[in-house]
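Entry:
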Amino acid sequence: MIKIFKSRIYVAFLLLSVSLGFGILGYRFISNYDWIDALYMTVITITTVGFGEVNPLTNADKVFTIFLILFSVVILGYVISVFTEYMFTRRSYEEFKHKTLEKKIQKLKDHVIVCGFGRNGREAVEKLKSYKKEFVIVEMDEDLVSKYEDDDTMFCIGNANEDETLIRAGIDQASALICAMPEDADNLFTVLSARQLNKNLKIISRASVDTSFRKLKLAGADNVILPDKIGGDHMASLVVMPDLVEFLDNLSVSGQDNVNVREILYEHVCPDNIDKTIREVDLRNLTGCTIIGYKNPAGDYVVNPEASTLITKGSKLIVIGKPNQINTLRNEFNI
């Protein structure tokens, strides 16, 4: 809609320019005015302000002025109507778009809120998209929002530190919040606000310095990530254990056809809510995947669990396999 009106504005500017050019040339060559007087006469004629003529008009001048008035009044009326309609329509369109977006956000459930759309925020969003996870981005920079906004990306413009902004982003129905803002102080205040608004929310925050790690944890963050520390550790690991690190880097945990690692919930392997051992599930024979980890309900991890390990409610299994084996796993356990 806005694009249509912009094209009409270009047409209006073109017609107005033609009207001015027609009047200036007419007074210059019909009435023998100099260029300044020709411009003056054209402007007062088109705008119908009623100032006096530069020189008394001859019959030829009067006939030309009549045609110029009739011609320019139609064009000027069109220009004014286009600009007026554009201004009101743009305002109405923006209001309609924001109201529609707010209604759409309020209908979301178990979505992720990403605070900050810098480098870390964009990486997080790309990963969420690959998992087809619904998300809302909270960002203050309106220019940045207008640059990346599209039908598949929902933005909530505002300060993530403010409760009102988080409420508009649907924090009461969200399952997780990612604080990816560049300043640790902003992340800290956002974590505090978010934890107060939703006690069950999983909160992940970035931190720039080690001293912020403990503060963010005390504020209510479940996980705190230090990107610089992770990057340095990864580079050093490539020096001391290059083959192992490259192998782990080649494992894919997202996408549709190339996933190598997957987590399975208790409900998937025990749909009847009857606890089973890893041996009883017989995952290897059914799918070809191998169980490499077990997370118990308390949150403790067991690497390479024994076959006798009992899978209880609230636990998870971490499995590894080829992409085709992971697909078999999805089909076998309705994941």
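The two ends are 42 Å apart (CA to CA).
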